[in-house]
């Protein structure tokens, strides 16, 4: 599922090219990636084949993110931090997946099954964290997965559009995911109001 290492720089460059210019011609994509049109043609042949190669690269990279984060071995908070860093290390890939998103993206009957391993790994991680008492249990592991994906991919999209700087993204994601949007004073106030 992972791409050969010698292809990775080209796949990254092509991923960025597709993200930055989704309607570009093959010649334009080649120029954006810093290669000739002939090289791109030898690499993939057609635009459709290019998209398939990039999707395969995405699947392989997501698998590597899961492995590198150590979701089943590491202490849950350490694993969460690694999971965030691993995702952010592949911003161009996440931006590509955001750009490719369509309503049936995760519909298993329409090809979404290729991402099932990723969803299941995240679900299992959050469930393990719940079982260890690290993550709250009043929200399902599946919802944790959905919220995590939404936060990570949404922040990368915001970076792409110039609405967020990536310098503090990992810390921002961790704080929003673990602590939410309430300020510390609002948190104390809501706890005081809830106490009879």
The fourth-level CATH homologous superfamily is Tetracycline Repressor, domain 2
How many runs of DSSP E, i.e. beta strands?
0
Q: Major sheet, described briefly? A: none
- Report the helical percentage: 55-70%
The dominant shape is elongated
CATH architecture term? Orthogonal Bundle
SSE pattern, N- to C-terminal: HHHHHHHHHH
Uncertain spans:
none
Number of domains: 1
Mean pLDDT comes to 87
How far do the termini sit from each other? 56 Å
Structural class: mainly alpha
User: What is the rounded Rg?
Assistant: 19 Å
Query: CATH first level: which class?
Result: Mainly Alpha
Strand content: under 5%
Number of DSSP helical runs: 10
Q: What do we call the CATH topology?
A: Tetracycline Repressor, domain 2
Organism: Pseudomonas koreensis
Protein name: Transcriptional regulator
Summarize this entry quickly.
With 196 residues, the protein is an all-alpha fold. It has 10 helices and no strands. This is Transcriptional regulator.
Which tags fit this structure?
196 residues; elongated; Transcriptional regulator; mainly alpha
């Amino acid at each position: 599922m992972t791409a050969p290492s010698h292809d990775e720089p080209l796949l990254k460059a092509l991923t960025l090219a597709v993200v930055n210019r989704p309607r570009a011609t093959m010649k334009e994509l080649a120029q954006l990636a810093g290669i000739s049109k002939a090289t791109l043609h030898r690499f993939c042949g057609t635009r459709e084949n290019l998209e398939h190669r990039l999707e395969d690269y995405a699947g392989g990279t997501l698998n590597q993110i899961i492995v590198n984060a150590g979701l089943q071995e590491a202490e849950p908070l350490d694993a969460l931090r690694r999971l965030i860093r691993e995702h952010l290390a592949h911003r161009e890939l996440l931006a590509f997946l955001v750009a490719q998103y369509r309503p049936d993206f995760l519909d298993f009957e329409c090809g979404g099954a290729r991402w099932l391993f990723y969803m299941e790994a995240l679900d299992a991680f959050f469930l393990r964290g719940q079982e260890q008492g690290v993550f709250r249990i009043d929200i399902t592991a599946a919802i944790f997965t959905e919220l995590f994906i939404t936060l990570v991919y949404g922040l990368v999209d915001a970076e792409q559009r110039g609405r967020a700087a990536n310098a503090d993204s990992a810390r921002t994601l961790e704080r929003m995911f673990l602590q939410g949007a309430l300020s510390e004073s609002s948190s104390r106030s809501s706890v005081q109001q809830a106490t009879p």
